[in-house]
Amino acid sequence: MKAGRSLSRDFGEVQNLQVSLKGPGDYVSQADRKAEEIIHSELARARPGYAFLMEERGAVPGEDDQHRWIVDPLDGTTNFLHGIPIFSISIALERQGQLVAGVIYNPAMDELYTAERGGGAFLNDRRLRVSGRTKLSDAVIGTGVPHLGRGHHGNFLVELRNVMGEVAGIRRLGSAALDLAYVAAGRMDGFWEPALSPWDIAAGLLLIREAGGFCTDMDGGQEMFDKGSIVVGNEAIQKALLKTLKKPLR
Ligand code: 2AM
Ligand code: CA
After folding, report:
1. Is 79's C-beta closer than 6 angstroms to any atom of ligand 1?
2. Residues 47-60, mean pLDDT to the nearest whole number
3. For a pocket test of ligand 1, which of 156, 200, 225, 232 has the largest count of ligand atoms closer than 8 A to its C-beta?
4. Closest ligand 1 atom to the C-alpha of 193?
5. Ligand 1 atom closest to 76 (CA)
6. Which pLDDT band, with edges at 50, 70 and 90, does 20 fall under?
7. What value does the mean pLDDT of the chain take?
8. Greater pLDDT, 106 or 23
9. What is the spatial distance between Cα 192 and Cα 68, in angstroms, rounded to a whole number?
């Protein structure tokens, strides 16, 4: 909540920044680092010795080799920078390499998504369930579009071409963590993205599983962190989406 307030304050300043000398890019990385600092110090105080994997700091080892926090202090940086209120803080806890807790918070909309292994997934205090739609033709599917500085543009066009002809709609929110939270909440029926980092997806993966959904990497395996690719949805949509993504170009 404290990190959320810090991001909200900085988000309120974003509009004024277009004219600032420093440039919005610098400011965002400052907002980012400030949120990460708050999260790091609060979590280190609450659970001394746990390791961290954080977007800005990278891997921070801890004396406790059983536990690791995986943190993205600001997911959806480009939205944040442009004054679009779709960004989030994503925090997951791993115990012995297994995701056991996850939190995603969108401070601009005051939406708090939480999940505990075996305990279900929630949006504020409402229990979440993935959508019940089973046909791609009824499905709204999220994705992330590669841009300047990120590769795989050609591959992505093939995937998009395969998917767009089969579905009711495609959405691109710009925060992978929120995309996953939206799938857990049944707002979107599925999501895929080819190149993400563990901090973008760790909390969201647990939310989806706890909301009754399915997750694989782009090859249908469980190496989402190593490969950085994910395909998620309810059982039927996840399977159908994976198959559609892999269709050879006609
Ligand atoms: P960010 O806002 O923390 O950078 C947008 O499609 C999603 O991709 C966002 O969640 C964004 O996270 C993430 N993203 C952007 N650049 C990335 C990169 N180079 N590697 C992995 N994820 C990235
Ligand atoms: Ca991110």
Report:
1. no
2. 95
3. 200
4. 6
5. 2
6. low
7. 93
8. 106
9. 25
The gap between the terminal CA atoms of the chain, to the nearest Å, is: 49
**Does residue 53 surpass a pLDDT of 70?**
yes
> Is 101 in the same domain as 144?
no
- Mean pLDDT score, 139-145: 97
Evaluate if residue 26 carries a pLDDT over 90.
Answer: no
123 and 140 co-located in one domain:
no
Q: Is residue 250 part of a domain?
A: no
Q: Using CA atoms, how far apart are residues 224 and 239, in angstroms rounded to an integer? A: 16
Give the per-residue pLDDT at 100.
98
Question: Is 22 domain-assigned?
Answer: yes
Q: In this structure, are 100 and 15 located in the same domain? A: yes
Residue 232, judged by CB atoms within 10 A of its CB (0-12, 13-18, 19+), counts as buried
Pairwise CA distance, residues 88 & 207, whole Å: 14
**Total residue length of the chain:** 250
Same domain, 58 and 87: yes
Q: Is the CB of 200 under 6 A from ligand 1?
A: yes
Q: Do 71 and 90 contact (CB within 8 A), yes or no?
A: yes
Q: Are strands 140-143 and 190-193 parallel, antiparallel or unpaired?
A: parallel
Q: Is the pTM of this model over 0.90?
A: yes
pLDDT reported for residue 19:
47
Mutate which of 175, 179, 182 for ligand 1? The one with the most ligand atoms within 8 Å of its CB, which is 175
CA–centroid distance, 238 to ligand 1, in Å, is: 22
Q: Enter the DSSP assignment of 169.
A: E
Q: Residue 45 maps to which CATH number?
A: 3.30.540.10
Helix/strand number for the chain, H first, E second? 8, 13
